[in-house]
Amino acid sequence: MTHDTKETISMMVLTRVGYFNLAGVRELYDRAGSATTLMDHRLDVREVVPDASDKLVERLRDCDDHIRRAEEELEWTQRHGVSVLCLGDDCYPYRLAQCQDAPLVLYYKGTANLNQMRVVSIVGTRRCTVYGQDLVRRFMADFRSHCGNKLLVVSGLAYGVDIMAHRSALEQGFETVGVLAHGLDELYPPRHRDTARQMVGQGGLLTEYMTRTNADKVNFVRRNRIVAGMCDATILVESASHGGGLITCGIAQSYDREVFAFPGSVGLQYSEGCNNLIRKNGATLITSAMDFAESMGWQDNSLLERAQRQGIERSLFPDLTPDQQRIVDVLRKTNDVQLNILSNMTGLPVGKVSSEMFELELKGVARSLAGAVCHLIG
Predict the structure, then answer these.
(1) At CB < 8 A and 24+ separation, what contacts does 294-300 make?
(2) Lowest-pLDDT range, 187-191, 223-227, 337-341?
């Protein structure tokens, strides 16, 4: 599903109107049923949402400049090959869509499917040490060796751990997406431009911000929710006692996503954040890619390709785990269910459903279709 031009522009306008109340604008959109409805009633919005705040009523009445700005932005995206992903579109990250403060609109330039079966964010300090660099490189190489390249790596394209995650992912053949704190007409920091260009062809660049948006400090904090929300899990590599990586981990926890951290030496500044998070049970301790893959149930990621090459038949996989049986029972009653809805219907976390769907695909029982739709075979 894709939105028509009027609805897209309306969502862009509504985003600007509700810039300082992310959850509130999402609730308003959900209650109205569409952004177009709100814009059509912008002079009498209480006809649609009776308890709309006075501030919202005022901002909607005076949004002509926002409309013109949205029309200009849409034209710019069309000229520059940028996709406008609206909440509800098939290509919008479905994991992020589950979050109440998810952006109504994202701007995306790239080639990666943002709804892959395995999506992980790798975050940490901008002052990454040699130890942290080695951790990232080894994690990527080991994951590639043991689990294949079926992984989308997300980070913020910042200095330190972020850029190491992107570059190491590219080296190992993973797709990788950078979430920006500004529009797609600029790049911060500029020295990462070559890596960003490579990412567009092997991943992509993603942002909620229109062009001509400065990379202000508050924008980096806001973008962390996208980094956390569009992923199954967040991995903290190195962090001081306070920092953006810890903020991202906290957001991931609030979204009920998995959080992992590499430990570091006691007393070292950029190990303190990781060690404290682990000590407070805010993250699962990992020391390798295999620790992570085992915790996520992703360690057999390469088996599907081998099974397809060898022509292994469904009859060789007769047994289902209790969680797999629960998923199959739901799909027998209601087939073609989106992953997040299936998570709610089974009572299993999204990451668990995702990993079990992969196992069910190996067994020839179920598969994931476009738009993260789960389908029972046969």
Answers:
(1) 295/258, 295/260, 296/118, 296/232, 296/233, 296/258, 296/351, 296/355, 297/352, 297/355, 297/356, 297/358, 297/359, 298/118, 298/147, 298/355, 298/358, 299/146, 299/147, 300/147, 300/359, 300/362
(2) 337-341
Cα–Cα separations (whole angstroms), residue 73 to 153, 244, 265, 270: 28, 29, 48, 40
Phi/psi-derived region of residue 225, left when phi > 0, alpha when psi is between -120 and 50, beta in every other case: alpha
Main-chain phi, psi angles of 203, to 5 degrees = 145, -115
Query: Residues with Cβ < 8 Å from 251, sequence gap 6 or more?
Result: 224, 225, 228, 229
Give residue 312's pLDDT.
39
Alpha carbon of 337 to those of 84, 113, 164, 368: distances in Å? 25, 19, 37, 9
Residue 212, CB-side half-sphere exposure with 13 Å CA sphere: 6
Rounded to an integer, what distance in angstroms lies between the CA atom of residue 314 and that of residue 291?
29
For residue 106, the cross-strand partners are 85
Structure tokens at 245: 């990586």
Question: Which residue is it, tokens 């701007």?
Answer: 107
Q: How sure is the predictor about 318, in pLDDT bands with cuts at 50, 70 and 90?
A: low
For residue 157, the SS3 value is coil
Cβ proximity of 330 and 345 under 8 Å: yes
- Which phi-psi region, left, alpha or beta, contains residue 142 (left: φ > 0; alpha: ψ -120 to 50)? alpha
State the residue for tokens 């990451």: 351
Ranked by mean pLDDT, which of 260-269, 295-304, 361-370 comes out on top?
Answer: 260-269
